[in-house]
Amino acid sequence: IWDCQFSSFDRVVATASGDHTVKLWSLNNFSCVRTFQGHTASVLRVRFLSGGLQLASSGADGLLKLWTIRTFECESTMDSHMDRVWALDMSSDGKTMISGGADSRIIVWDDNTKEIEDAKRATEEENILMEQKLANHLRHKEFDEALKMVLKLDKPRQALKVITAMVENDLQAGLDPCNSLKKHVRGWEMDTTAQILRYARDWNTRARNSDVAMIVVRAIVAVVPTNTLSTADGVPEILAGIIPYAERHFERLDKLISSSYLIDYTLSSMGSLIEEEGDGR
């Protein structure tokens, strides 16, 4: 055992040992209540933080790890040291951690949990607002605004939703499914075209999205000259990634069509039998 630390908040003690683990022991009955595994070499130092809810450990593998006691989870691994981390301690306010290693470096770590949570919350709020705006655009069939928004935010899943709605609207109006898409393709820069092709490549990996993906490819190929696509940066590689899955989907459709002939034959035979029975009566 290289180190031990008594908790100021509970009747437990944490130990760091040469078996690559951090253990938490109860002072009531001296039993091991938690074992934290993740270091690949001896654990040299351990400290409590976050009001006794978390542990920080450092090891001979040059890593610092942050553990949540309740869930046994390693929340973060820090690898700025190049050698054994012999020293580890916390500031009095618990917001700063200092580590020192055999690499002759002392590193000060600040707790940025609040900033990360704030950024995550802001992202979630932005996504909710974007989903609301997108739903409003689709409800009013404002496909132009909806598509511009999802492309600007680089949201492939929402882009699939917009293009699917656009295609369905064209089909309901008795138009070619590529009709609206072709109008958009004519106004796209090549970067936007490549972006949409990347989306289509990813959509095409799933059978249920392959029809929309193929409609997108068809609209682009019909509008953009072949020599322009072949010389555009990254586009030939994207198209090469679309082809294998497209061939697989076409083979699947061919098999379904072939199987449908058996259904037609069965129904036709059933009709003949019904007619014969009717004549017999």
Automatic annotation (TrEMBL):
It holds the Pfam family Utp13. This is U3 small nucleolar RNA-associated protein 13 C-terminal domain-containing protein. It comes from the Eukaryota. Keywords: Nucleus, Repeat, WD repeat. WD repeats lie at residues 1-35, 36-77, 78-119. One of its GO terms (biological process) is endonucleolytic cleavage to generate mature 5'-end of SSU-rRNA from (SSU-rRNA, 5.8S rRNA, LSU-rRNA). GO terms for cellular component: 90S preribosome; small-subunit processome. The lineage of its organism: Eukaryota, Sar, Stramenopiles, Ochrophyta, Bacillariophyta. It is found in: Nucleus, Nucleolus. SUPFAM superfamilies: WD40 repeat-like. One of its GO terms (molecular function) is U3 snoRNA binding.
